[in-house]
């Protein structure tokens, strides 16, 4: 039977763009929505959309998912078979100064998506969570089976809330839902507010780089192609619910409801100083590094345990940071014309 179109929210975003490319390459009909807000330069988002529009199977709709009526109409018209919800207000530090943006986009927007799935026969909802939900946890690597009740930023709290909201709808309405905890995604067409983009711009323009936690910050950098591959493999594996799930000893990663959580990370934390050194090598320039203390809302290290993901789809991210940065640097030179 011919599949209905698939919805990708945040299609003009970094991950949404790459996932949509993969879906179109598979011959899928994709509806992409994005508000094209100005959290970062909208021209980058518009450039991504422009490339996606070259495929006739892609239909772009500018829409703010916090608009309940517009989102309801979108779902009613298209009756999506699957939904990949990647739209969100991102950024840890931005949440310290603009908390309302996170309630509007990440809570109200997600509720509207859940309602759309509930009333229009969605067969699988995949939604973006974040490694930030691990918050104050210090046991490494981070496992989906760990409790994550101590967020240290409103952004993290909003992502934890998304996981709980999705579970509620899975329990009440049997909507198969898969939460995806992304770990520091980087690569071509990345976000300007993220470390890799910021570092590259600073090195090439001779500006200083603030390196927090005095250079000892470690992040599990995950290359975008690995993220997209994992999502594509998970689409056709909606959770069924675990009949053996035990409420007296609840596993935070699964449920009797058709709901599941996965880490998607490279499982290889890198110090930011090493990442900067690789960019210095690629660009042939030395960075002006300014060592700074830890910032509010940050954590010292992230490290993904991906055993559950590997078991489910036979795949784990594995792109070496050296290879990923070489590809990113090549793209950045072309994009920035330097």
Automatic annotation (TrEMBL):
Keywords: NAD. Residues 6-243 form the NAD-dependent epimerase/dehydratase domain. Pfam families: Epimerase. This is NAD-dependent epimerase. Coiled coil: none annotated.
């Amino acid at each position: 039977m011919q599949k209905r179109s698939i919805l990708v929210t945040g299609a003009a975003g970094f991950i949404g763009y790459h996932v949509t490319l993969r879906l179109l390459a598979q011959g899928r009909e994709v509806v992409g929505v994005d508000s094209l807000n100005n959290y970062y330069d909208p021209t980058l988002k518009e450039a991504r959309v422009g490339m996606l529009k070259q495929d006739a199977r892609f239909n772009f709709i500018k829409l703010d998912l916090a608009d309940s009526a517009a989102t309801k109409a979108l779902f009613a018209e298209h009756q999506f078979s699957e939904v990949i919800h990647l739209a969100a207000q991102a950024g840890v530090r931005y949440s310290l100064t603009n908390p309302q943006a996170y309630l509007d986009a990440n809570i109200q927007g997600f509720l509207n998506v859940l309602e759309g799935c509930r009333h229009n026969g969605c067969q699988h909802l995949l939604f973006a969570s974040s490694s930030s939900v691990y918050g104050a946890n210090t046991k490494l690597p981070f496992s989906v089976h760990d409790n994550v009740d101590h967020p240290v930023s409103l952004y993290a709290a909003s992502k934890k809330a998304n996981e709980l909201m999705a579970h509620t709808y899975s329990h009440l309405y049997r909507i198969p839902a898969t939460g995806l905890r992304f770990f520091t995604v980087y690569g071509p067409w990345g976000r300007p507010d993220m470390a890799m983009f910021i570092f590259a711009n600073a090195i090439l323009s001779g500006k200083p780089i603030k390196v927090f936690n005095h250079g000892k910050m470690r992040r599990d950098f995950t290359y975008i192609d690995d993220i997209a591959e994992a999502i594509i493999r998970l689409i056709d594996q909606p959770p069924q619910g675990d009949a053996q799930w035990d409420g007296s000893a609840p596993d935070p990663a699964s449920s009797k409801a058709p709901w599941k959580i996965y880490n998607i990370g490279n499982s290889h934390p890198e110090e930011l100083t090493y990442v900067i050194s690789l960019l210095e090598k690629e660009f042939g320039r030395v960075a002006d590094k300014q060592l700074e203390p830890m910032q509010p809302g940050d954590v010292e290290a992230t490290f993904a345990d991906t055993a559950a993901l590997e078991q489910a789809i036979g795949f784990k991210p594995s792109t070496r940071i050296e290879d990923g940065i070489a590809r990113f640097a090549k793209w950045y030179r072309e994009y920035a014309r330097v």
